[in-house]
Write a structure and sequence with these properties.
This protein has 618 residues and is mainly β. It folds into 2 domains: 108 residues, Cytochrome Bc1 Complex, Chain D, domain 2, CATH 1.10.760; 445 residues, Quinoprotein alcohol dehydrogenase-like superfamily (Methanol Dehydrogenase, Chain A). 11% of the residues lie in helices and 31% in strands. Strand 4 and strand 5 form a beta hairpin. Helix 1 packs antiparallel against helix 7 and helix 2 crosses helix 6. The two termini are 42 Å apart.
Length: 618
């Protein structure tokens, strides 16, 4: 926390000598032109060009200055933020947003405090007692299905849902960490590094914990016993590859462990707890996003799956997804390049308790040469970390931001740029009929069902869209009979839509096209994409979409049972100014008669937002 405190002090002392929206030729304009203008232009970059994924100047005006500073310090722009001093971070934040940086508010939000504290510190229930939605996939199998006994909501109940309360996340433009409901508490996290334990009924706060960096993972909750202490712990990872265990009752740190030392390493997928071990993947977006720029020695990040003792934080094994990087060519500027690299694990893994295997989905490579375990599923022995089998579903996909389609004379880039069709969904372990399957969708808009007893051989595939390198496919939902997939397809002509297929053979059951967009006409920051993780309950499937809408579809025919537009301002129980925005990545959580959804996905593909919404029956 010392780093954050020093930053806050520096920003406070910096004062307000800069006017928002300063003219060209000023110091802030010089900082922007030097460090930011190459990516963030006035107009959207053409599709297929190096900067097509960078938010434009107009999109950045939808952010607050505090959110930009937080992104440079705690969020996805950390690598770029290391090139700026504290004063420059403030200067450029004011310049790109056209808004004043509120140093006092930023300082207050970065000082650990509990707002709207619960008047009674109600003890947590023991795990297994009462309703829960634990982790990203609602259990180690990752099916994202909530049975009626725990959800206590039927399809017929959904039209009667009403907003009960809202909770704001300070100084962020996105709310991308899915909540967890366990032991009678709701655990939520934010890219400002805060993790909160809330009362699900009222939204009051039991405790707040501050991590060293922004948190995008869904928390996972389970028992711990170490050092003469025992209880329930909350486990989560941050944007600097730190894994944490925090006492779920008191909010005190039990242990923290950095699971990867690479400067670009981060944790996005929720840790999965099984038999006293945490299984967690590591991704390297910060290197993928800068590989071709600034004479960076591209690339050296390696994706990995890690097993960590839940009681002590000891790393039990680490399994790499690619070979060790070695020197390759030297660039024209004399910079040594490396490879292979990449193979990020973006999503939560899953656990096959019957076969004692852990499954993880891998992403694309960043640099040549091609690898065998990128863009596929790996099966790892849960005790030893040994790779039992792997199935690559799309080979030779080397991709890094800023690279052209062909790069014969630029060793900072892959010689041939791949389509960037990585996996960002959990490989769910489902049971249908007399067999088990591993099911997951890909950014290619292809869903796969694999055979866990035949080295991941393909049982069926289902093509539900065109495919797009931009925008994730974050997870389907599986109710034992049907599999459900929402379509992202951000760069395709017809993004959006929902699909249901027969789980046993992948044959289509119904398709519902994209809905009228709640955010207006399609443009950067507004689209109909529905690639966020889905949630199934008996008789219905829920999706939270890029246009700001939460929609519930009938499991039988896809008819819409409920719609809520999150694109509005909210009065929050913790007093933070908050608004809804686009939704992607995390999905709705259903538990104990309530629905919890985070709204906000600021950037090129979505509208900024920073709110948690809690719905219950009238």
């Amino acid at each position: 926390m010392k780093v954050v405190s020093m930053l806050v002090a520096s920003l406070l002392l910096g004062g307000f000598g800069v006017s928002a929206g300063a003219a060209q030729g000023t110091e802030e304009d010089a900082v922007f032109q030097t460090y930011c203008a190459a990516c963030h232009g006035a107009a959207p970059a053409a599709a297929g060009t190096p900067n097509e994924r960078a938010p434009t100047r107009d999109l950045l005006k939808g952010f607050t200055a505090e959110a930009v500073v937080n992104a440079l310090v705690n969020g996805k722009m950390q690598a770029q933020g290391t090139l700026l001093n504290d004063a420059q971070k403030r200067l450029v934040a004011e310049y790109v947003t056209g808004k004043r940086f509120d140093a006092a508010a930023f300082a207050a939000s970065n000082t650990l405090q509990v707002i709207n504290r619960c008047s009674v510190d109600t003890p947590m229930r023991a795990m297994g007692r009462g309703a829960s939605w634990n982790g990203f996939g609602n259990g180690a199998a990752g099916t994202r299905f909530q049975p009626a006994t725990a959800g206590k909501l039927s399809a017929a109940d959904l039209p009667r849902l009403k907003l009960k309360w809202a909770f704001g996340y300070a100084n962020v433009s996105s709310a991308r960490a899915q909540p967890t409901y366990a032991g009678g508490r709701l655990f939520v996290a934010s890219e400002n590094g805060e993790v909160h334990a809330l009362d699900p009924r009222t939204g009051c706060t039991y405790w707040t914990f501050k991590a060293a960096a922004g948190v995008r993972t869904a928390p996972s909750v389970g028992p711990y016993k170490a050092g003469g202490k025992s209880g329930q712990a909350v486990y989560f990872g941050d944007g600097r590859a730190n894994l944490y265990a925090v006492d779920a009752q008191r909010g005190t740190l039990l242990w923290t462990r950095k699971v990867d030392e690479h400067p670009s390493a981060a944790i996005t997928g929720a840790p999965v707890l099984h038999d006293g071990r945490l299984f967690v993947g590591v991704q390297g977006l910060n290197e993928e996003g800068r590989g071709s720029r600034d004479n960076y020695p591209c690339c050296s990040f390696r994706g990995s799956l890690n097993a960590v003792d839940a009681n002590t934080g000891t790393v039990l094994w680490k399994t790499w997804t690619i070979d060790e990087p070695k020197p390759r060519a030297v660039s024209k500027a004399g910079v040594q390049m490396f490879g292979p690299a990449g193979g990020s694990i973006w999503s939560a893994p899953s656990v096959d308790a019957k076969r004692h295997l852990v499954y993880a989905a891998t992403g694309n490579a960043y640099a040549d040469p091609p690898q065998q375990m990128t863009n596929g599923v790996i099966a790892v022995d849960e005790r030893s970390g040994r790779i039992v089998w792997h199935h690559q579903l799309l080979p030779a996909d080397q991709w890094a931001m800023g690279c052209e389609a062909k790069n014969p004379d630029n060793p900072a880039c892959p010689e041939t740029l791949g389509p960037d069709m990585d996996f960002s969904a959990t490989p769910a372990v489902v049971h249908v009929g007399k067999r088990d399957l591993i099911v997951l969708p890909q950014k290619s808009a292809i869903a796969y069902a694999l055979d866990p007893d035949n080295k991941g051989a393909i049982v069926w595939t289902h093509k539900f869209g065109e495919g797009s390198g931009l925008g994730g496919q974050w997870g389907g939902a599986y109710d034992g009979t049907r599999a459900y997939f929402g379509l992202a397809d951000f760069l395709a002509p017809k993004p959006g839509g929902m699909n249901a297929v027969n789980l046993a053979d992948g044959k289509p059951l119904w398709h519902v096209g994209p809905q009228p967009m709640l955010c207006g006409e399609k443009r950067p920051g507004c689209g109909p994409g529905q690639g966020g993780a889905l949630t199934a309950i008996p008789g219905a499937v829920l999706n939270s979409a890029l246009d700001g809408g939460i929609r519930a579809y009938s499991a039988t025919d896809g008819s819409i049972l409920w719609l809520y537009n999150t694109l509005q301002d909210y009065v929050t129980v913790n007093g933070v100014k908050a608004k809804g925005g686009s939704m992607d990545g995390n999905g709705p959580v259903v538990a104990d008669g309530m629905v919890f959804v985070n709204s906000g996905y600021g950037g090129l593909i979505g509208t900024p937002g920073n709110v948690l919404l809690a719905f219950g029956l009238e």
